[in-house]
Amino acid sequence: MSHGRAIAFEGVEHHFDVGGTPVPALDRIDLTLEPGELVTLAGPSGCGKTTLLRLVAGFLPPATGSVTVGGEPVRGPAEERGVVFQQPTLFPWLTVRGNVELGPRLRGVAKAERAELADRYLRLVGLQDFAQHRPYELSGGMQQRCQIARVLANEPGIVLMDEPFGALDALTRERLQEELLEIWRATGRTILFITHSVDEAVFLGSRVLVMSPRPGRIVFDEPAVFGEHGARVPADEIRALPEYVALCDRVRHAIHQPTNVD
Ligand SMILES: Nc1ncnc2c1ncn2[C@@H]1O[C@H](COP(=O)(O)OP(=O)(O)OP(=O)(O)O)[C@@H](O)[C@H]1O
């Protein structure tokens, strides 16, 4: 099993060309995510979170600077960098198992090994009893679990998650947060997780980042330990801890502070 890999941004800037005018999206991003970190990234709408994630995914190259994964420059999308979007992107004509096995199948992984990978990750996300169902027979939360298993079956060193629980109801979202922490602890992947929710950022992150908008910069970067409490401490108790509430306050403050222009 591959393990989490480091992600490094060096002097990264990015802008979009809108009708001939450059619109700045990212400015002076110097940031390293250590292997196995679960880094959550919050910030107001339009501050550049998705752009940052897309650079790591290899969906677009930075205008300036470099993005490397495990010391290698990102040159385009690759299976070692799995992406989980807000809306699951599952093939409706394949079963749940078929969707999870698709990546390994396209990579030419032998049938028995594919089945083993699918079993392992379907079990990890709790869908082992739904392997023969079609995606449209599943609830939104189950579809998102299936998408996570599909990404993990490629054994990526990095998992990029762009508001993956944003479309789910509150209860399902909290359940999936706890499950994600279990998956993270079990697999040791490096995870970059974008969210609009301060609570989600603090609950999940082993490190919490906040970006400010126009142009997007990292304005807050603090370690967090709550995800590491794991199943030993109930989620409600974690959320009531004074240090948890204090970190939420600091993150909220960083999100709402006026943009520093120098
Ligand atoms: N393809 C594009 N063409 C032009 N401008 C873009 C494009 N993609 C993003 N932008 C602009 O770049 C800035 C950053 O966008 P981005 O989607 O990265 O922000 P975000 O923080 O992920 O927003 P949200 O939280 O609303 O998803 C915004 O001003 C946005 O309008």
Automatic annotation (TrEMBL):
The keyword Manganese does not apply. PANTHER family: ALIPHATIC SULFONATES IMPORT ATP-BINDING PROTEIN SSUB, TAURINE IMPORT ATP-BINDING PROTEIN-RELATED. InterPro entries: AAA+_ATPase, ABC_transporter-like_ATP-bd, ABC_transporter_ATP-bind, P-loop_NTPase. It comes from the Bacteria. The lineage of its organism: Bacteria, Bacillati, Actinomycetota, Actinomycetes, Propionibacteriales. The keyword Nucleotide-binding applies. Keywords: ATP-binding, Nucleotide-binding, Transport. One of its GO terms (molecular function) is ATP binding. This is NitT/TauT family transport system ATP-binding protein/taurine transport system ATP-binding protein.
